[in-house]
Amino acid sequence: MRRMIILALTLLLLLFIAPASSSAGEWSPHVVWQAAKIGKIASEMQLGPNGLFYAVSGNKLIVMHENGGKLWESAGLDSNKSGRPVFDSHGSIFIPGSASIQEFKLNGSSGWSFKIYQKSSKSAALLTSGPGGLLYLPLPSGLYAVDTSGHYKWMITSWDEGYKSSTQLESDIEVYACLGNNQAVFVILGNQQKGFSLIALSGEGKVFWRYFLGYIKEANLVNGKDGLIYATVNPKKIDRLNKGTVYAFDSNGDGKPLWSYHVIFDDLTAPTPSEHNLIYFCAGERLYAINKDDGTEAWYQPLYKAISQPSVDESSKRVYLGTEDKRLLAVTLQGRLDWELILDSKVSMQPLVRPGGYLYAVTDAGSIYKIKDEPPVTNGG
Predict the structure, then answer these.
(1) What residues have CB less than 8 Å from 7, skipping those under 6 apart?
(2) The CATH number of 116-268 is which of 2.60.120.10, 2.130.10.10, 3.40.50.720, 3.40.630.30?
């Protein structure tokens, strides 16, 4: 009896000295809904200014509401694949084709169209906004500037530095990436014989600078703050001199990289700058974090089959990315894997992060998931 009394007193004492609240688990994912398969998605899903979600499948623009239902879809001007949409502040969506721009209104009605007649090329359908509020369409034949009412403004007729006055089309040129900000428009292009370069141009088509990137097979560009841009390039082959590289450039600089970071892989995703001074990207089934200021490595974490560009949720301090074997991953800012969620197919697109712990993931099977990243449950006050 005495032992039982002592045991009971001990348990009561432990209850009194226990913390007021304690974690009942870790972060965990909850699927809110899964949309029906809508076809192969060509670019990351985007949130429009009206709160609706936009995705491109083939030459179609597909629009969905917050509960996963399809509102409408419209075909682009070209029968070929369309590219990533560009939005403006006046209620228009601009879709690039292989050599065209098609305007849609937010309600799905078609607007103006702009088309260049040229030979077929290997280049992806690319479009960006940039200086002067213009739309910039980079093609093997040159860079075309169009205003948001569909009016042609200017073009440069040759990308080759040695033939600036030539009107001959550079049919062997491929365009890998384009990006614009208030200072300039940036294009990565070249060919397999002469190599590829990053070119910065003004809003009037003047070349500010060029930087030779070498013999590469793929490249990505993203905007940073204060006129900085970041690029990842994947070499055609890996050897002692050719590696996958992350670059930082100043839009107002002379074209020399502020820094570069090299890895012995040729599958670097686009980089993702964060608000906490790190840049994230995937390569070689690893998630890398490098410092914005100087490009030095902060850490890397092996993550089996990781392939997508990472996304960062600044509020919850978490990084999300997809894998080749159908998983969506959540990782802490220190690189620790928190959870993984199996979806219906490969997750090669960057997840879309929204406030409140919600994220949207697109699979290669054409499914769209809305997921709530649930924080740990706490007990007590």
Answers:
(1) none
(2) 2.130.10.10
Lookup: tokens for 1: 């009896």
pLDDT at 378: 63
β partners of residue 63? 54, 72
Burial category of 235 from C-beta neighbours within 10 Å (exposed 0-12, middle 13-18, buried 19 and up): buried
The one-letter code for the residue type at 368 is I
Q: Would you state the structure tokens that stand for residue 273, as one six-digit string?
A: 């700058």
Dist. CA 213–CA 219, nearest whole Å = 10
Q: Are 128 and 179 in contact (CB under 8 A)?
A: yes
> Is the whole model's pTM more than 0.70, yes or no?
yes
Residues present in the chain in total: 381
Which two tokens mark 7? 């045991």
Residue range 109-126, pLDDT digits in tens: 889 999 998 776 777 899
Return the bridge partners of 208, or none: none
